[in-house]
Write a structure and sequence with these properties.
This is enoyl-CoA hydratase. Keywords: Fatty acid metabolism, Lipid metabolism, Lyase. InterPro entries: ClpP/crotonase-like_dom_sf, Enoyl-CoA_hyd/isom_CS, Enoyl-CoA_hydra/iso, Enoyl-CoA_hydra_C. Belongs to the enoyl-CoA hydratase/isomerase family. It is built from twelve helices and ten strands. The chain is α/β, with parallel strands linked by helices. The chain has two domains: 6-200, 2-enoyl-CoA Hydratase, Chain A, domain 1 (Alpha-Beta Complex), CATH 3.90.226; 204-250, Lyase 2-enoyl-coa Hydratase, Chain  A, domain 2. It is globular and about 60 Å long. The mean pLDDT is 97. The protein binds hexanoyl-coenzyme A (HXC).
């Protein structure tokens, strides 16, 4: 598929996907969705690729939200009958088992904030600004924001952000546990690629299992989550990479992963 609204490149085992509508602050329209789904499916299917980074082009925005101009024309029946926004979750969250990072370089508002929160974690530049301003448009988050933001930062802060539409800067977002780390604006992409390369260098089955078990914490009760973790741990002990990883440690050398 030839892309018009995103850019993709691979650097060794890391796929970089860049939202590329800078004049519209990388607003997320239907074409962006289709292209992102394709790019993530390509990343997932390519055995040479182990981790991805998603960022925004230009200096101002990761993504300033779902495309308001597109949504303004759409009848309510279409939103409902097409189950609008459902595919973001089913295709980009549920089907992607490999880890990926959102590198938030500016505004991450509405659907942009929601897309960033679909990532396994967020790295933010000092200029990042997060918000769910949908209320000002007469709507509300529609791509998981009210749920993921609340799980990340708690009820009080999430409720305040959704009800007032105010933006949260990078430092506050780090304090509130919305982002893993804040880095200097000019260093964001390098740092995200470096972090992704570290993850890409891990045993691949273990990377997927670690992601699955952390995600299980949001879906299950504590007892079930701990059993799920233990079973995955036990499965990993049967892998060739477990044997290699432990031998490599004892022999004081780097592991040479087989991915099995
Ligand atoms: C379409 C957008 C856009 C968006 C910005 N643009 N955000 N186009 N959809 N979400 C366009 C502007 O129309 C403008 O185009 C250009 O990008 C630059 O934006 P400006 O507003 O001129 O920039 P600035 O003054 O710096 O303000 C930046 C901003 C503001 C604070 C981020 O653009 C803004 O508030 N944007 C909307 C944020 C928002 O409400 N997001 C939530 C969307 S709803 P022109 O052609 O005029 O130059 C959503 C729903 C989720 O995401 C799902 C549930 C419904």
């Amino acid at each position: 598929m030839a892309y018009e609204t995103i850019l993709t490149e691979t650097r060794d085992a890391v796929t970089l996907i860049t939202l590329n509508r800078p004049k519209a602050l990388n607003a997320l329209n239907s074409q962006v969705l289709e292209e992102l789904i394709d790019a993530f499916a390509t990343f997932e299917a390519d055995d040479s690729q182990r981790c991805a980074v998603l960022t925004g082009s230009g200096d101002k925005a990761f993504a300033a939200g779902a495309d308001i101009k597109e949504m303004s024309e759409k009848p309510a029946a279409d939103f409902y009958l097409q189950d609008f926004f459902a595919r973001w979750t089913s295709e980009i969250v549920k089907k992607v088992r490999k880890p990926w990072i959102a590198a938030v370089n500016g505004f991450a508002l509405g659907g942009g904030c929601e897309l960033a929160m679909m990532a396994d974690f967020i790295l933010a530049s000092e200029n990042a600004k997060f918000g769910q301003p949908e209320i000002k448009l007469g709507v509300a988050p529609g791509m998981g924001g009210s749920q993921r933001l609340t799980r990340a930062i708690g009820k009080s802060k999430s409720m305040e952000m959704c009800l007032t539409g105010r933006m949260m800067g990078a430092e506050e977002a780090e304090r509130a546990n919305l982002v893993a780390r804040v880095v200097a604006h000019d260093e964001l992409l390098d740092e995200a690629m470096k972090t992704a390369a570290t993850i890409a260098g891990m045993p691949p089955m273990a990377a997927i299992a670690n992601k699955e078990m952390v995600n299980a914490a949001f879906e299950t009760g504590l007892d079930q989550g701990i059993i799920f973790e233990r079973r995955l741990f036990q499965i990993l002990t049967a892998s060739e990479d477990k044997k290699e990883g432990m031998e490599a440690f004892i022999e004081k050398r780097e592991g040479n992963w087989k991915g099995r």
